[in-house]
Amino acid sequence: MSSLGELRSIAVNKRKGGRRTEEKYPDNKAAYLFLLPWFIGLLGLTIGPMIASLYLSFTDYNLLRPPEWSGLDNFTAMFGDARFWNSFRVTAVYVLVGVPIQLALALGLAMLLDKGMRGLSLYRSVFYLPSLLGGSVAIAILWRQVFGKEGLVNGALSWFGVDGPGWIGHPDYALGTLIVLNVWTFGSPMVIFLAGLRQIPEMFYEAAAIDGAGRFRQFLSITLPLLTPIVFFNLVLQIIFAFQAFTQAYVVSGGTGGPGDSTMFYTLLLYKEAFTELNMGYASAMAWFLVIVIAAFTAFNFWLSKYWVFYDD
Amino acid sequence: MTTETETLVRAETAPARRPGGTRRGGFRSVVKHAMLIALSLVMIYPLLWLLVSSFKPNSEIFRDLSIFTTDLTLENYANGWNDLQFPFGVFLLNSSVIAFGAIAGNLFSCSLAAYAFARLRFRGRNLMFAIMLGSIMLPFQVLLVPQFLIFKELGWLNTFLPLIAPKFLATEAFFVFLMVQFIRGLPREIFEAARIDGAGHLRSYLQITLPLIMPALAATAIFTFIWTWADFFGPLVYLRLPESWPVSVALKGFLDAQSTSDYGSMFAMSIVSLAPMFLIFVFGQRYLTKGIATTGIK
Which residues of chain B make contact with A150, given a CB cutoff of 8 A? Predict the structure, then answer.
C-alpha cells in the first residue's frame, strides 16, 4: 500500500472508531527510545522551523537586524507584486501541463510493457534511467545544448527543413524545454504503474475472459478501476514535487530565471528573495503561501478522488 | 494486509502472464517493438550524444551532431579536470563524503524509527505515523529560512554538517515508510520466536530485523546516494566556498565560466559526475525499482 493509501486508512479507521480503549501499550518505553532521533528531528528541524517561519512571515527580517513585526506587510507586498504572480503562473503552467503529460506517458508505456514480453527489463531500464539522472546539474547542462540554437532538436528539425529557434533563449519556449525535461523523467511513475499492474490478480482476467469480455472490455472494467488508486497516488505526489522544482530551472536559465523571467519558478524567486536580497521575512511568507497552495491542490485532489478512485474497502 | 514490497518480490520472481499476452499476432508485436525501440532511442540519444561529445575535439561537437565518429580524444577530460579553481577530484571527494555521511545517517535513523512503527505498540502510534507520512508532502521551502538560521548559529555554514546531520534524525520520511513496509512483510513468527528466546527489542532490531530488511536498506542507500550526489539546492545554500563544493555546484561553475566556449571539458566533467550515478543504477536496479514501487519516490 502506498504512503497515501496508508494515510487514508488511518483516517478511515479513526472515523469508524475502531480503536479499543482497553488496548495496552506494552512497548511505550522501547518505542520512544527507538523514535528518539526521529522525534528530535521532528521537533528541531520540522515543527520548530515551521513555527519560526510562520512568525518570520509576519516580520521584516534581513539577517542583520533582529526581526521586526510588520503584520501583513509581506503578504500585501507579495500579492501586489507582478513578479510574484508571474512566478506563480510559470510554476502553475509547469505543473498543470507537465504532470498530466508525464503521467499519461508513464501509464501508456506501463500498459505496453506489462505483458511478460521480450526485452521488458531492458525497456524498463532505458525508460527509467532518465528519471534517475534527470535531477542532476549535468543533465540540465545537457538540456541547454539539446535545445540550444545548434542543438540536437534543431539538428533533427533541419532534416525536415525547419530552422528552429534557440529554444532556451526564447521567452516563449524556454518554459516548454523544462516541461519536456520533466516529461522525459516519466520512468519513475511508470515503474510504479508497472508494479500496480502486476498486483491485479490474474483470476480477475480469467473470470472476465470466461464471461466473454474482450481485451478492451477487460482494460476498462478491470485494469483501469483497479489502477486508479495508483494513478491518484502518482498524481498527488508528482504535483507536490513539481511545485517545488528548482535545480533544472536554475541551471538551464543560468541562475537567472530568464529569458525575461519566463522560467522564474516560484522556488527560484523564493531563493533569490531569501539568499540574494536577504528578505528572509518575505521569503518565509512566500513559502507559507506555497504550503497553502499545495495543501489546497492536495485537498482538491482528495475531494475529486471520491468520483474516480476505486477503493474496495 | 499484503504489503506492496511482498507482492513485488513475488511478482519479480514469477512475472504474471496474462492469457493471450505472450502469443499475440506477430505483426502487432513487431509494431509495438518498433515503437518502443524508437522511443528508447529518442529518450537515450541525448545521453549518448553527451558521452560521445565529451570525447570529441571542441571544434567538432556542434559541427556534427551524430554519435558516430572516429575522431576521438581524451583531451577534454585532461582539460576539464583542471579547469576550475580546484582539480575536479576535490569536488568528487566532497560529494562522496556528503553522500556516504547521508547514507550512514539515513540507514541508522530511519531503520530505528521504522522498527518502532512496524513492530512496537505504543501510545500515539497512529498519530505519529500519520505525522511522519504527512511530512513527506510538506514542501521543504517552509523550513528553509529557519533551518538556515539554526545552522548559521551553530557555525555550520561552509561545512558538510547541514547536509549530513539532519539525516541522522530521520528527516527523510519516505525511507522510514519504505522500511516499515518491508518489516511488516516479515513473518511474525520470527519475532515471536526471538521474544520467547528472551531477545529484547534491541536484539530483535539488530540481529533479526536489520539482516532481514537488507533489500530495503540497500534501496535506501542507493536512493540516498543518488539524491545527495545530484543535490544542488542544499550545497548552493550552505556551501559558498569553492573548496567545499560538491560536483553539482562545481559543474554549475563551468556554466558561469563559459566565456571560452570550451564545451568539451564541460561535457567531460558532466560525464564524470554522472558516472557514479550510472554505475549505481546498473548494479542496484533491482532494489531501485522495488523501492520506488513501494514509496512512490523518484
Answer: 62
- B64 and B108 co-located in one domain: no
CB distance from B183 to chain A under 8 Å? Answer: no
A interface test, pick of B10, B140, B144, B164 with most A CB neighbours within 10 Å: B144
Q: How would DSSP label each residue in A238-250?
A: HHHHHHT--HHHH
Q: Which ipTM did the prediction report?
A: 0.90
Residue B214 has which C-alpha cell?
537488507
- Asked if B113 has any chain A CB less than 8 Å from its own CB, the reply is yes
Best of B84, B122, B145, B148 to disrupt the A interface (most A CBs within 10 Å) is: B145
A217/B contact by beta carbon, under 8 A? no
pLDDT in tens, A63-86: 889 999 999 999 999 999 999 999
CA angle, residues B193, B195, B201, in degrees to nearest 5: 130
Quote the CA–CA distance of B188 and B168 in Å, as a whole number. Answer: 28
Q: Is residue B105 part of a domain?
A: yes
Structural domain of B168:
88-295
Q: What is the pLDDT of residues B52-99, one digit of tens each?
A: 999 998 888 887 788 887 778 899 999 999 988 899 999 999 999 999
B139 and B33, same domain (yes or no): no
Over residues B214-262, the pLDDT tens digits come to 999 999 999 999 999 999 999 999 999 999 999 999 999 888 876 557 8
A251 contacts in B (CB within 8 Å)?
Answer: 232, 252, 255
Same domain, B119 and B51: no
In degrees, to the nearest 5, what angle opens at C-alpha B24 toward C-alphas B19 and B25? 155
